[in-house]
Amino acid sequence: MDVQDLRAFLAVAEERHFSRAAQRLHISQPPLSQRIGALERKLGVRLFERGRGGVSLTAAGTALLPQARVVLQQLARAEELAQRAGRGASGQLSIGFAGSMPFSELLPRLLRDFRRAWPAVQLQLRQLSSNEQLRQLQEHGLDLGFIRSTSQPDEQALQLRALQREPLYAAVHSGHALAGLGRVDLKRLRDDPFILYSREFGSGLREQILALCLRAGFSPQVVQEVHEMPTLISLVSAGIGVGLVAASMQRASVPQVRYLELADPDASTDIVLAWRRGDASPVLRNFLELAFAHASSG
Protein backbone atom coordinates (compact mmCIF):
# COMPACT_ATOMS: atom_id res chain seq x y z
CA MET A 1 0.00 0.00 0.00
CA ASP A 2 1.42 3.37 -1.00
CA VAL A 3 0.42 6.98 -0.52
CA GLN A 4 -1.47 7.15 -3.81
CA ASP A 5 -3.46 4.08 -2.76
CA LEU A 6 -4.43 5.82 0.49
CA ARG A 7 -5.38 9.04 -1.28
CA ALA A 8 -7.53 7.15 -3.77
CA PHE A 9 -9.19 5.15 -0.99
CA LEU A 10 -9.87 8.26 1.10
CA ALA A 11 -11.40 10.14 -1.83
CA VAL A 12 -13.79 7.28 -2.61
CA ALA A 13 -14.60 6.72 1.09
CA GLU A 14 -15.46 10.39 1.64
CA GLU A 15 -17.28 11.00 -1.65
CA ARG A 16 -19.05 7.59 -1.62
CA HIS A 17 -18.97 7.77 -5.40
CA PHE A 18 -16.26 6.86 -7.92
CA SER A 19 -17.06 9.65 -10.39
CA ARG A 20 -17.00 12.39 -7.76
CA ALA A 21 -13.84 10.93 -6.22
CA ALA A 22 -12.16 10.89 -9.66
CA GLN A 23 -13.08 14.55 -10.20
CA ARG A 24 -11.65 15.41 -6.77
CA LEU A 25 -8.37 13.67 -7.67
CA HIS A 26 -8.34 15.21 -11.18
CA ILE A 27 -8.19 11.83 -12.90
CA SER A 28 -10.63 9.82 -14.96
CA GLN A 29 -12.80 7.17 -13.32
CA PRO A 30 -11.37 3.98 -14.90
CA PRO A 31 -7.83 4.41 -13.46
CA LEU A 32 -9.35 5.15 -10.05
CA SER A 33 -11.52 2.03 -10.17
CA GLN A 34 -8.50 -0.02 -11.24
CA ARG A 35 -6.39 1.36 -8.38
CA ILE A 36 -9.06 0.58 -5.77
CA GLY A 37 -9.50 -2.92 -7.22
CA ALA A 38 -5.73 -3.50 -7.08
CA LEU A 39 -5.63 -2.24 -3.48
CA GLU A 40 -8.40 -4.65 -2.47
CA ARG A 41 -6.57 -7.55 -4.11
CA LYS A 42 -3.35 -6.49 -2.38
CA LEU A 43 -5.07 -6.45 1.03
CA GLY A 44 -7.17 -9.52 0.35
CA VAL A 45 -10.38 -7.81 1.48
CA ARG A 46 -13.18 -5.76 -0.06
CA LEU A 47 -13.12 -2.13 1.04
CA PHE A 48 -16.33 -1.00 -0.70
CA GLU A 49 -19.72 -2.36 -1.56
CA ARG A 50 -20.61 -1.14 -5.05
CA GLY A 51 -24.13 -0.08 -5.95
CA ARG A 52 -25.94 1.94 -8.59
CA GLY A 53 -26.20 4.98 -6.33
CA GLY A 54 -22.58 4.87 -5.25
CA VAL A 55 -20.45 2.89 -2.81
CA SER A 56 -20.44 2.18 0.91
CA LEU A 57 -17.65 1.07 3.19
CA THR A 58 -17.31 -2.54 4.25
CA ALA A 59 -16.14 -3.44 7.75
CA ALA A 60 -12.57 -3.56 6.40
CA GLY A 61 -12.96 -0.16 4.75
CA THR A 62 -14.43 1.32 7.93
CA ALA A 63 -11.40 0.07 9.89
CA LEU A 64 -8.96 1.47 7.33
CA LEU A 65 -10.55 4.94 7.03
CA PRO A 66 -9.30 6.59 10.29
CA GLN A 67 -5.83 5.12 9.85
CA ALA A 68 -5.63 6.41 6.28
CA ARG A 69 -6.56 9.88 7.47
CA VAL A 70 -3.89 9.82 10.17
CA VAL A 71 -1.18 8.65 7.77
CA LEU A 72 -2.04 11.29 5.16
CA GLN A 73 -2.21 14.03 7.81
CA GLN A 74 1.21 13.01 9.12
CA LEU A 75 2.60 12.99 5.59
CA ALA A 76 1.21 16.47 4.92
CA ARG A 77 2.75 17.69 8.18
CA ALA A 78 6.12 16.14 7.29
CA GLU A 79 6.01 17.81 3.86
CA GLU A 80 5.17 21.15 5.46
CA LEU A 81 8.00 20.87 8.00
CA ALA A 82 10.51 19.94 5.30
CA GLN A 83 9.40 22.85 3.11
CA ARG A 84 9.54 25.30 6.03
CA ALA A 85 13.04 24.14 6.94
CA GLY A 86 14.12 24.46 3.31
CA ARG A 87 12.87 28.06 3.27
CA GLY A 88 14.59 28.82 6.57
CA ALA A 89 11.22 29.38 8.25
CA SER A 90 12.06 26.94 11.05
CA GLY A 91 15.19 25.75 12.82
CA GLN A 92 17.62 27.62 15.04
CA LEU A 93 20.42 30.16 14.79
CA SER A 94 23.23 30.64 17.30
CA ILE A 95 24.39 34.27 17.38
CA GLY A 96 27.36 35.71 19.23
CA PHE A 97 27.77 39.39 20.00
CA ALA A 98 30.33 41.64 21.64
CA GLY A 99 29.30 43.43 24.83
CA SER A 100 28.87 46.79 23.12
CA MET A 101 26.44 45.53 20.46
CA PRO A 102 23.17 45.80 22.46
CA PHE A 103 23.80 49.55 22.76
CA SER A 104 23.86 49.97 18.99
CA GLU A 105 20.66 50.45 17.02
CA LEU A 106 21.63 47.76 14.55
CA LEU A 107 21.60 44.53 16.56
CA PRO A 108 18.32 45.10 18.47
CA ARG A 109 16.58 46.21 15.26
CA LEU A 110 17.86 43.20 13.33
CA LEU A 111 16.76 40.74 16.02
CA ARG A 112 13.33 42.35 16.25
CA ASP A 113 12.77 42.34 12.48
CA PHE A 114 14.04 38.78 12.10
CA ARG A 115 11.67 37.52 14.79
CA ARG A 116 8.77 39.23 13.05
CA ALA A 117 9.67 37.70 9.69
CA TRP A 118 10.60 34.22 10.96
CA PRO A 119 8.84 33.67 14.31
CA ALA A 120 9.37 29.88 14.34
CA VAL A 121 13.18 30.14 14.24
CA GLN A 122 14.81 29.78 17.64
CA LEU A 123 17.54 32.35 18.30
CA GLN A 124 20.31 31.47 20.76
CA LEU A 125 22.15 34.64 21.78
CA ARG A 126 25.55 34.59 23.50
CA GLN A 127 27.71 37.51 24.63
CA LEU A 128 31.32 36.70 23.75
CA SER A 129 34.51 38.56 22.94
CA SER A 130 35.33 38.99 19.26
CA ASN A 131 38.19 36.47 19.46
CA GLU A 132 35.97 33.88 21.13
CA GLN A 133 33.28 34.38 18.52
CA LEU A 134 35.75 33.81 15.70
CA ARG A 135 37.01 30.64 17.40
CA GLN A 136 33.52 29.26 17.97
CA LEU A 137 32.47 30.05 14.42
CA GLN A 138 35.28 27.86 13.13
CA GLU A 139 34.38 25.12 15.62
CA HIS A 140 30.66 25.29 14.71
CA GLY A 141 29.72 26.55 18.15
CA LEU A 142 28.16 29.65 16.56
CA ASP A 143 26.41 30.30 13.27
CA LEU A 144 27.30 33.98 13.06
CA GLY A 145 28.81 36.70 15.18
CA PHE A 146 28.67 40.46 15.63
CA ILE A 147 32.19 41.67 16.26
CA ARG A 148 34.25 44.83 16.01
CA SER A 149 36.77 45.26 13.20
CA THR A 150 39.46 42.63 13.40
CA SER A 151 42.87 42.54 11.82
CA GLN A 152 43.35 38.74 11.91
CA PRO A 153 40.36 36.87 10.48
CA ASP A 154 40.79 33.40 8.97
CA GLU A 155 39.74 34.38 5.47
CA GLN A 156 39.74 30.78 4.25
CA ALA A 157 37.26 29.65 6.90
CA LEU A 158 35.22 32.79 7.56
CA GLN A 159 33.50 35.58 5.72
CA LEU A 160 33.24 39.06 7.23
CA ARG A 161 31.17 42.05 6.20
CA ALA A 162 31.08 45.48 7.81
CA LEU A 163 27.47 46.48 8.45
CA GLN A 164 27.85 49.85 10.11
CA ARG A 165 30.58 52.38 10.88
CA GLU A 166 30.43 54.25 14.18
CA PRO A 167 32.48 57.26 15.28
CA LEU A 168 34.78 56.76 18.24
CA TYR A 169 34.18 59.00 21.24
CA ALA A 170 36.38 59.75 24.22
CA ALA A 171 34.76 58.73 27.50
CA VAL A 172 35.92 60.99 30.35
CA HIS A 173 34.85 61.60 33.92
CA SER A 174 32.39 64.46 34.41
CA GLY A 175 35.07 66.22 36.49
CA HIS A 176 37.61 66.11 33.68
CA ALA A 177 38.89 69.50 32.45
CA LEU A 178 37.55 68.77 28.93
CA ALA A 179 34.19 67.35 30.03
CA GLY A 180 32.30 70.46 28.94
CA LEU A 181 33.51 70.26 25.34
CA GLY A 182 31.55 68.51 22.64
CA ARG A 183 34.46 67.75 20.32
CA VAL A 184 38.18 67.40 20.96
CA ASP A 185 41.42 66.36 19.30
CA LEU A 186 42.77 63.11 20.70
CA LYS A 187 46.13 64.77 21.45
CA ARG A 188 44.44 66.75 24.23
CA LEU A 189 44.21 63.47 26.20
CA ARG A 190 47.93 62.73 25.89
CA ASP A 191 48.63 63.29 29.60
CA ASP A 192 45.64 61.29 30.87
CA PRO A 193 45.82 57.75 32.20
CA PHE A 194 44.28 55.49 29.53
CA ILE A 195 41.98 52.50 29.84
CA LEU A 196 42.67 50.26 26.84
CA TYR A 197 41.20 47.07 25.43
CA SER A 198 43.16 43.91 26.08
CA ARG A 199 44.51 41.72 23.30
CA GLU A 200 41.96 39.07 24.32
CA PHE A 201 39.22 41.52 23.24
CA GLY A 202 40.24 40.42 19.78
CA SER A 203 38.61 43.15 17.76
CA GLY A 204 41.61 45.01 16.42
CA LEU A 205 40.33 48.06 18.28
CA ARG A 206 43.32 48.01 20.61
CA GLU A 207 45.75 48.35 17.70
CA GLN A 208 43.56 50.97 16.04
CA ILE A 209 43.50 53.14 19.18
CA LEU A 210 47.24 52.82 19.67
CA ALA A 211 47.76 53.85 16.03
CA LEU A 212 45.40 56.83 16.46
CA CYS A 213 47.36 57.97 19.52
CA LEU A 214 50.68 57.66 17.68
CA ARG A 215 49.33 59.76 14.81
CA ALA A 216 48.24 62.30 17.41
CA GLY A 217 51.83 62.43 18.65
CA PHE A 218 51.82 60.35 21.84
CA SER A 219 51.82 56.86 23.28
CA PRO A 220 49.03 56.42 25.85
CA GLN A 221 49.80 55.80 29.52
CA VAL A 222 47.81 52.58 29.94
CA VAL A 223 46.72 52.04 33.55
CA GLN A 224 44.07 49.36 33.00
CA GLU A 225 43.03 46.89 30.32
CA VAL A 226 39.46 45.66 29.81
CA HIS A 227 37.65 43.15 27.59
CA GLU A 228 34.49 45.14 26.81
CA MET A 229 33.30 48.72 26.33
CA PRO A 230 30.73 48.67 29.18
CA THR A 231 33.56 47.77 31.60
CA LEU A 232 35.68 50.63 30.27
CA ILE A 233 32.86 53.11 30.88
CA SER A 234 32.38 51.84 34.44
CA LEU A 235 36.07 52.44 35.15
CA VAL A 236 35.84 55.94 33.66
CA SER A 237 32.96 56.60 36.05
CA ALA A 238 35.20 55.46 38.91
CA GLY A 239 37.85 58.00 37.89
CA ILE A 240 40.43 55.41 36.80
CA GLY A 241 41.19 57.12 33.50
CA VAL A 242 39.87 57.93 30.02
CA GLY A 243 39.15 55.65 27.08
CA LEU A 244 37.68 55.43 23.60
CA VAL A 245 34.31 53.83 22.89
CA ALA A 246 31.84 53.56 20.02
CA ALA A 247 29.35 56.43 19.71
CA SER A 248 26.44 54.10 20.51
CA MET A 249 27.82 53.58 24.02
CA GLN A 250 26.40 56.99 24.90
CA ARG A 251 23.16 55.07 25.48
CA ALA A 252 24.76 53.47 28.53
CA SER A 253 23.46 55.50 31.45
CA VAL A 254 26.53 55.52 33.67
CA PRO A 255 26.84 58.35 36.23
CA GLN A 256 29.64 60.89 35.95
CA VAL A 257 30.70 59.97 32.41
CA ARG A 258 30.84 62.43 29.52
CA TYR A 259 31.34 61.53 25.85
CA LEU A 260 33.45 63.73 23.56
CA GLU A 261 33.46 63.40 19.79
CA LEU A 262 36.94 62.98 18.34
CA ALA A 263 38.04 65.33 15.56
CA ASP A 264 40.81 62.98 14.41
CA PRO A 265 40.51 61.33 10.96
CA ASP A 266 39.71 57.59 10.99
CA ALA A 267 38.44 57.76 14.57
CA SER A 268 35.74 55.18 13.94
CA THR A 269 34.93 51.53 14.50
CA ASP A 270 32.96 49.05 12.41
CA ILE A 271 30.26 46.60 13.42
CA VAL A 272 31.19 43.46 11.49
CA LEU A 273 29.14 40.36 10.79
CA ALA A 274 31.12 37.09 10.63
CA TRP A 275 29.97 33.66 9.46
CA ARG A 276 31.46 30.43 8.12
CA ARG A 277 32.38 30.44 4.46
CA GLY A 278 30.17 28.06 2.49
CA ASP A 279 27.52 27.65 5.21
CA ALA A 280 24.36 26.77 3.24
CA SER A 281 21.87 27.01 6.12
CA PRO A 282 18.60 28.57 4.86
CA VAL A 283 18.08 30.18 8.29
CA LEU A 284 21.50 31.82 8.11
CA ARG A 285 20.81 32.92 4.52
CA ASN A 286 17.61 34.67 5.61
CA PHE A 287 19.38 36.46 8.45
CA LEU A 288 22.23 37.59 6.21
CA GLU A 289 19.83 38.94 3.58
CA LEU A 290 18.01 40.92 6.24
CA ALA A 291 21.27 42.21 7.74
CA PHE A 292 22.58 43.30 4.32
CA ALA A 293 19.29 45.04 3.55
CA HIS A 294 19.53 46.96 6.84
CA ALA A 295 23.14 47.89 6.11
CA SER A 296 22.23 49.17 2.64
CA SER A 297 19.31 51.24 3.91
CA GLY A 298 21.15 52.53 6.97
Report on the architecture of this protein.
The protein has helices spanning 3-15, 18-25, 29-43, 59-87, 106-117, 130-138, 205-215, 229-237, 282-297; strands at residues 48-51, 54-57, 91-97, 121-127, 144-148, 158-173, 183-184, 193-197, 221-226, 243-246, 257-262, 268-276. By secondary structure, it is of the alpha/beta class. It has three domains: 3-87, Arc Repressor Mutant, subunit A, CATH 1.10.10; 91-163 and 271-297, Periplasmic binding protein-like II (D-Maltodextrin-Binding Protein, domain 2); 165-270, Periplasmic binding protein-like II (D-Maltodextrin-Binding Protein, domain 2), CATH 3.40.190. The protein starts with a helix and ends with a helix.
How would you concisely characterize the structure shown here?
It contains nine helices and twelve strands. The chain folds into three domains: 3-87, Winged helix-like DNA-binding domain superfamily/Winged helix DNA-binding domain (Arc Repressor Mutant, subunit A, Orthogonal Bundle), CATH 1.10.10.10; 91-163 and 271-297, Periplasmic binding protein-like II (D-Maltodextrin-Binding Protein, domain 2, 3-Layer(aba) Sandwich), CATH 3.40.190.10; 165-270, D-Maltodextrin-Binding Protein, domain 2 (3-Layer(aba) Sandwich), CATH 3.40.190.
Number of strands: 12
Radius of gyration: 32 Å
N-to-C SSE series?
HHHEEHEHEHEEEEHEHEEEH
Query: What best-fitting shape do the alpha-carbon axes yield?
Result: rod-shaped
List segments where confidence is low: pLDDT < 50 over at least 5 consecutive residues. none
Supply the CATH architecture of the largest domain: 3-Layer(aba) Sandwich
CATH fold field value of the largest domain: D-Maltodextrin-Binding Protein, domain 2
Give the name of the CATH superfamily of the largest domain: Periplasmic binding protein-like II
Distance between the termini: 57 Å
Largest sheet: 8 strands, mixed
Please tell me the overall pLDDT.
Answer: 91
Supply the number of helical segments: 9
* Integer count of domains: 3
Helix content: 40-55%
Name the CATH class of the largest domain. Answer: Alpha Beta
- Structural class from helices and strands? alpha/beta
Strand portion, in percent? 25-35%
